Amino acid sequence: MYSKFICPICKGNFTVNNKTLICENNHCYDISKYGYINLMRSQKSSKKRHGDDKLMLKSRHDFLEKGYYKPLLDAVTDEVLKRCGDENFTVLDVGCGEGYYTANIKQNVPDCDVYGIDISKDALICAAKRDRNISLAAASCSEIPIESGSCDVVLNIFSPTNAAEYSRVLRPDGILIKAIPLENHLFGLKAAVYDKPYKNKIDSRELENFIVSDFREIKYTLNFTSNEDIISLFKMTPYYYKTSRTDQAKLENLTNLETEIEFGIIVYQKR
Ligand SMILES: [Zn+2]
After folding, report:
1. How far is the CA of 4 from the centre of ligand 1 (A)?
2. What is the CATH number of the domain that holds 45?
3. How far is the CA of 127 from the centre of ligand 1 (A)?
4. Residue 219 reports pLDDT greater than 60
5. 142 lies in some domain
6. Using CB atoms within 10 A of its CB, is residue 232 exposed (0-12), middle (13-18) or buried (19+)?
7. Residue 249 in contact with residue 231, Cβ under 8 Å?
8. Is residue 4 part of a domain?
9. Cα of 40 to ligand 1 centre, how many Å?
10. Residue 265 pLDDT > 90, yes or no?
11. What is the domain range of residue 247?
């Protein structure tokens, strides 16, 4: 564990010494009692850099634990399993959040070396609780503290994309697995909240330094029969923070909701 992390200051490799990582230039980082390392380059803007707040995190945890996104979890794990090779096989989950996808991969392929980074420390604490055998660090995707050319798979599940950094950390034959919401994802939920719901805009699949080698769609319908689940779903989306109180209130007493779930999984090969 931890050996592929690099020092955020000098980019040197670490020696793992009990609960501390020390680089060649003696920069030290402690593995916190919560099971992650803080490798943020700077603490200055930590207030602006909120990551997922606790409310969003709890809603997402409750929601995911009920298995509503299990088809996506299975599909992502499947893509990794298909390619999994020797015991040196390394997977990095960028923006791993509370480790829902990360932990499932570790549990399905115990031999593989699994890393997760996120800017939210609360999310990392949840991820460490899911599985203590994942190497976790607080870090941003703009400067990934991982050794160049050390990863076989990078996961990018609904997190910001940084093609240059993904390409740098991947081995020459490495792949990037990116999950995106498709056009009608959560349309039923949006129709319950907004007078004029819009379909999602789909960004171009093209990514610098990568070629698309595979694409699959996962589409199904969810029927919610509890207000709690509907509210959890809403709170874990970015819509929650962009919606007026009047529109938010429309969900307060709603106990039945049918909504489309639509994900795309893009597999990229390093160019
Ligand atoms: Zn250093």
Report:
1. 14
2. 3.40.50.150
3. 26
4. yes
5. yes
6. buried
7. no
8. no
9. 13
10. yes
11. 14-270
